[in-house]
Amino acid sequence: DVCSSDLKIAISDGSSPFGAEDQFYYSSQMLSLEDYHTILKRLCRRGYLNLSNSVIKHMKRINLKPDITAYNFVLLACASSDLPTAGTEALHILSLIHKEGIIPNVFSFINVVRACTRVGKPHLICDLLKDKKNDNMYFYSWEFYNAAITVFHQGGFYAEADSIYQAAVNKKIIQPWVAEEDLNNQIGRAHV
User: Fold this and answer.
1) What's the rounded Cα separation, in Å, for the pair 164 and 1?
2) pLDDT computed for residue 116 by the predictor
């Protein structure tokens, strides 16, 4: 097993052996990036956001740069957390990923949107897309819009899903849905 006995205790019951959920205790043994992925995966599935963040901070302290997989596990912790601040924390982490030059992927976006909807704050995503000062190009990608539309729809936030879809069409990020017959007519006219 990749974990010291202290880490096994911290991971198995969701709290540190000393009772503080926001502390990460570790042994002197050197762990690999994959070992940290394993630790984060165990924590995030239980929604232990503070402890997951402590693991990331520890990785940075020992000069082991977290990758997108490590950050995605923390974003999954946000999406699994019952903390009322989980949505804003997920947006903060996505901003941090951007500042560190790491490229988020569709899993990053899905978990950010899930975190916002889980705590009943889908407007955080809509507000983010309306913010003209936002310089994060990832918020204007097909993956982000697709994740937002899908998660909003699955969560019953239909108006928000439609709003995001309309914004994506208006920005020409996605093409509007066209019936097959209309598409065939358009293709036929293009070849004439």
Assistant:
1) 44
2) 92
